[in-house]
Design a protein that fits this description.
Blueprint: H1 2-11, H2 13-36, H3 39-53, H4 56-71, H5 75-105
Helix pairs in contact: 2-5, 3-4
Transmembrane segments: 29-51, 58-76, 82-104
Subcellular location: Cell membrane
Organism: Enterobacter agglomerans
């Protein structure tokens, strides 16, 4: 298995590097945005978004959950995780929407 992985990495390195560059750029932008915001501002923004998109109860649950994340000292790790999820979501949408439209039009 290791030999096969080494072969793929050695032969497709330029392709992997080309994929990595935009992913790193978007990921860095999300991380800077999320880690650059003061935690209380981010907590209020996320709680208001949850309240508007879902229900007031979801907004309160989001508020309490994010306060607990901050209280246990895991805020920066949570924001890095959120940046990873948002980056993955963005690339899934960018690839999935055109693919879905194309497949819907094909017979």
């Amino acid at each position: 298995v290791t030999t096969g992985i080494d072969w793929v990495v050695n032969h497709f390195r330029p392709l992997f590097q080309g994929i990595r560059v935009p992913v790193d750029y978007i990921l860095s932008a999300f991380q800077q945005l999320l880690l650059g915001m003061p935690a209380p501002v981010a907590i209020l923004v996320f709680a208001l978004i949850a309240w508007q998109i879902a229900t007031p109860a979801m907004g309160i649950a989001t508020l309490v959950s994010l306060i607990l994340i901050g209280a246990i000292g895991a805020w920066s790790q949570a924001m890095v995780t959120l940046a990873l999820v948002l980056t993955a979501l963005m690339f899934c949408i960018l690839m999935g929407m055109p693919l879905g439209i194309w497949l819907a039009r094909s017979e």
